[in-house]
């Protein structure tokens, strides 16, 4: 889970995830969208891969990256587990105060 939060903490990595929502891309196509070196983009892609947010598939000389939303589904389920289910609704709370 720490790798996931580390990956999501960086705006460049979040932009890469946004790009991949439109479909699979190879590293070169992703790098073209940023004003930084290819090794820097590779580093970001590696962290995204380690976190499980993207999957990498080698096809010939290219590595294609695919968004993996399963990890985000698991994160969302974990976060939702902290939501109180027995909390009174706002209407109930305000009517109790009026009594």
From TrEMBL:
It comes from Spirosoma linguale (strain ATCC 33905 / DSM 74 / LMG 10896 / Claus 1). It holds the Pfam family HTH_5. GO terms for molecular function: DNA binding; DNA-binding transcription factor activity. InterPro entries: ArsR-like_HTH (IPR011991), HTH_ArsR_DNA-bd_dom (IPR001845), HTH_MetalResp_TranReg (IPR051081), SdpR-like_repress (IPR047796), WH-like_DNA-bd_sf (IPR036388), WH_DNA-bd_sf (IPR036390). It comes from the Bacteria. This is Transcriptional regulator, ArsR family. Residues 1-87 form the HTH arsR-type domain. SMART domains: HTH_ARSR. Keywords: DNA-binding, Transcription, Transcription regulation.
């Amino acid at each position: 889970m720490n790798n996931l939060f580390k990956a999501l903490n960086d705006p460049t990595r979040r932009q890469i995830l946004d790009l991949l929502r439109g479909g699979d891309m190879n590293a070169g196509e992703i790098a073209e969208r940023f004003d930084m070196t290819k090794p820097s983009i590779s580093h970001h892609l590696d962290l995204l891969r380690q976190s499980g947010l993207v999957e990498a598939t080698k096809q010939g000389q290219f590595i294609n990256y695919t968004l993996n939303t399963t990890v985000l589904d698991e994160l969302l389920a974990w976060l939702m587990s902290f939501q109180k289910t027995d909390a009174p609704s706002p209407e109930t709370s305000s009517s109790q105060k009026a009594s």
